[in-house]
């Protein structure tokens, strides 16, 4: 007894690390169909595939690290045998910047590339917050014109439509320079105001959740939430608060039937009033205006792509236009409240990142799709894309007498040679358990050959799908044995053709 207890104590506990998930075949196949649709959309725009490794030198991640003095804060890091720090990639953009800089003279510029893969965050996991998740990025490196940013926004819109989300999203566009101009206009320019600017931007980012009154409090003295917790505000005076609220509250699309050109002039004119005489602010407005004209010329209206002052994305990193794709259909959250699904993709212009590796500046812009979040959205709307064509499980060849296992292996080889998914039962159970195994594998049919069939040069094919249907109307074991539903004998030479018939009956092609 003591020995048995010791063995039990030594057994490892099977447990998944926090912030990670396992995925089974159905989900993998459905996600693959989604990724393939995205890939085809990106290729249509002339983007080419690039794959970078999971590991980069920690210093190459640059601004993506929360704290360079503590490499394991925010990222998973380790030291190589030469004591260099290496990290699992935090996103797919920093590796792209390193690749472009390393192969700068060999790649065509502008360089259009897309990348898909897992990224890793060494952060506290929580509901919907994982330490490993997939992104799908598209970037244009080497193009300084806002025409590149407009192309990225059009690509975002086209991709979501190809995924079946037509009329259920909007791509919202802002510009870092406009926000810098607003900050300048209210007296928050300069390095000494960086902390206050960040507080203001975080407040703006909460507009959808808290509304204008909540943001007003966060821009001023601070806000106490429903639980009683107090968040310190940015400490702006009333005039500055109202100026920012006027900016983020602009109507972002014309009413039905309104003159669109007149709306644009009024819209960007109002933005110009908010940034005042700020040169960088006016430059940002001009860039936004140019982007909207390009999108309109290509047939993208306000219902798909529009300027929106509430877009705030990693502004310590972006240098110009910023954008995000927001899904607009309602969902019910964990508290039973009806809310919008929110953003599934975002990005912007980051002209300084590649330049960290080179003496000259290298313009770049791009966006990233949150694959898991987008996949969840498609599941919510029951997208036909995720259903795909139901794939049959393998044909299972049962093993009734193990001394003749080579004969069974030969039958499996015949099926595989005809491109029919098949497997040999490798367990040690009897026929009844083998049939249950075939059912659990989703097998369309099982191949049965006892000694009598082998001597006669025949096999029995049991159509498991048809058999399950027939069994529903059979009440007794004796009746089942007499009927032996959907089970028939054929010569070995006809086995492949008859299995094909079973597959065609249940899984028609085209």
UniProtKB/TrEMBL annotation:
<feature type="binding site">
    <location>
        <position position="139"/>
    </location>
    <ligand>
        <name>L-histidine</name>
    </ligand>
</feature>
<dbReference type="GO" id="GO:0005524">
    <property type="term" value="F:ATP binding"/>
</dbReference>
<keyword id="KW-0436">Ligase</keyword>
<dbReference type="InterPro" id="IPR004516">
    <property type="entry name" value="HisRS/HisZ"/>
</dbReference>
<dbReference type="Pfam" id="PF13393">
    <property type="entry name" value="tRNA-synt_His"/>
</dbReference>
<comment type="subunit">
    <text>Homodimer.</text>
</comment>
<dbReference type="InterPro" id="IPR041715">
    <property type="entry name" value="HisRS-like_core"/>
</dbReference>
<feature type="binding site">
    <location>
        <position position="313"/>
    </location>
    <ligand>
        <name>L-histidine</name>
    </ligand>
</feature>
<dbReference type="InterPro" id="IPR033656">
    <property type="entry name" value="HisRS_anticodon"/>
</dbReference>
<feature type="binding site">
    <location>
        <position position="135"/>
    </location>
    <ligand>
        <name>L-histidine</name>
    </ligand>
</feature>
<keyword id="KW-0963">Cytoplasm</keyword>
<keyword id="KW-0030">Aminoacyl-tRNA synthetase</keyword>
<dbReference type="Pfam" id="PF03129">
    <property type="entry name" value="HGTP_anticodon"/>
</dbReference>
<keyword id="KW-0547">Nucleotide-binding</keyword>
<keyword id="KW-0648">Protein biosynthesis</keyword>
<dbReference type="InterPro" id="IPR036621">
    <property type="entry name" value="Anticodon-bd_dom_sf"/>
</dbReference>
<dbReference type="GO" id="GO:0004821">
    <property type="term" value="F:histidine-tRNA ligase activity"/>
</dbReference>
<dbReference type="InterPro" id="IPR004154">
    <property type="entry name" value="Anticodon-bd"/>
</dbReference>
<keyword id="KW-0067">ATP-binding</keyword>
<dbReference type="GO" id="GO:0005737">
    <property type="term" value="C:cytoplasm"/>
</dbReference>
<dbReference type="InterPro" id="IPR045864">
    <property type="entry name" value="aa-tRNA-synth_II/BPL/LPL"/>
</dbReference>
<feature type="binding site">
    <location>
        <begin position="317"/>
        <end position="318"/>
    </location>
    <ligand>
        <name>L-histidine</name>
    </ligand>
</feature>
<dbReference type="GO" id="GO:0006427">
    <property type="term" value="P:histidyl-tRNA aminoacylation"/>
</dbReference>
<comment type="similarity">
    <text>Belongs to the class-II aminoacyl-tRNA synthetase family.</text>
</comment>
<feature type="binding site">
    <location>
        <begin position="91"/>
        <end position="93"/>
    </location>
    <ligand>
        <name>L-histidine</name>
    </ligand>
</feature>
<protein>
    <recommendedName>
        <fullName>Histidine--tRNA ligase</fullName>
        <ecNumber>6.1.1.21</ecNumber>
    </recommendedName>
</protein>
<dbReference type="InterPro" id="IPR015807">
    <property type="entry name" value="His-tRNA-ligase"/>
</dbReference>
<feature type="binding site">
    <location>
        <position position="121"/>
    </location>
    <ligand>
        <name>L-histidine</name>
    </ligand>
</feature>
<feature type="domain" description="Aminoacyl-transfer RNA synthetases class-II family profile">
    <location>
        <begin position="33"/>
        <end position="392"/>
    </location>
</feature>
<dbReference type="InterPro" id="IPR006195">
    <property type="entry name" value="aa-tRNA-synth_II"/>
</dbReference>
């Amino acid at each position: 007894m003591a020995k048995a207890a010791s063995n039990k104590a030594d057994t490892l506990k099977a447990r998944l690390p926090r912030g990670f998930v396992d995925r089974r075949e159905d989900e993998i196949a459905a996600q693959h169909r989604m990724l393939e649709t995205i890939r085809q959309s990106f290729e249509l725009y002339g983007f080419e595939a690039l794959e970078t490794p999971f590991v980069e030198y920690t210093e190459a991640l640059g601004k993506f690290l929360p704290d360079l003095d503590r490499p394991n804060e925010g990222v998973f890091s380790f030291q190589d045998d030469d004591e260099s720090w290496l990290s699992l990639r935090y996103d797919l953009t920093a590796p792209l910047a390193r690749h472009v800089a390393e192969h700068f003279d060999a790649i065509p510029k502008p360089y259009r590339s897309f990348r898909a893969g897992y990224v890793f965050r060494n952060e506290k996991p929580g509901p919907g917050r994982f330490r490993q998740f997939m992104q799908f990025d598209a970037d244009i490196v080497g193009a300084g014109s806002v025409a590149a940013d407009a192309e990225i926004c059009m690509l975002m819109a086209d991709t979501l439509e190809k995924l079946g989300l037509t009329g259920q999203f909007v791509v919202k566009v802002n510009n870092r320079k406009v926000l810098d101009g607003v900050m300048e206009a209210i007296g928050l320019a300069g390095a000494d105001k960086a902390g206050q600017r960040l507080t203001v931007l975080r407040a703006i980012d909460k507009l959808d959740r808290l509304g204008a009154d909540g943001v007003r409090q966060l821009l001023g003295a601070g806000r106490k939430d429903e639980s009683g917790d107090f968040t310190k505000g940015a400490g702006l005076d009333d005039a500055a608060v109202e100026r920012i609220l006027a900016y983020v509250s602009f109507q972002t699309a014309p009413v039905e039937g309104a003159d669109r050109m007149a709306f644009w002039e009024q819209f960007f004119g109002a933005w110009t009033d908010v940034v005042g005489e700020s040169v960088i602010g006016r430059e940002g407005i001009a860039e936004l205006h140019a982007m909207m004209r390009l999108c309109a010329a290509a047939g993208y209206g306000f219902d798909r792509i529009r300027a929106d002052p509430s877009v705030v994305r990693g502004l310590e990193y972006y240098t110009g236009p910023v954008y995000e794709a927001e899904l607009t259909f309602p969902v019910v959250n964990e508290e039973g409240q009806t809310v919008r699904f929110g953003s599934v993709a975002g990005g912007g212009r980051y002209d300084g990142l590649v330049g960290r590796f080179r003496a000259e500046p290298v313009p770049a812009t791009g966006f990233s799709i949150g694959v898991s979040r987008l996949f969840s959205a498609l599941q919510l709307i029951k997208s036909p894309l995720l259903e795909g064509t139901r794939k049959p499980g393998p044909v299972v060849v049962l093993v009734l007498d193990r001394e003749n296992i080579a004969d069974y292996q030969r039958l499996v080889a015949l099926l595989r040679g005809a491109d029919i998914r098949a497997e040999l039962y490798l367990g040690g159970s009897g026929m009844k358990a083998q049939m249950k195994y075939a059912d659990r594998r989703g097998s369309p049919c099982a191949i049965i050959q006892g000694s009598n069939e082998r001597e006669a040069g025949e096999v029995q094919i049991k159509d498991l799908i048809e058999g399950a249907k027939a069994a529903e109307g059979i009440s007794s074991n004796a009746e089942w044995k007499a009927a032996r539903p959907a089970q028939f004998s054929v010569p070995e030479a006809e086995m492949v053709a008859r299995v094909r018939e079973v597959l065609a009956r249940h899984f028609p092609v085209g």
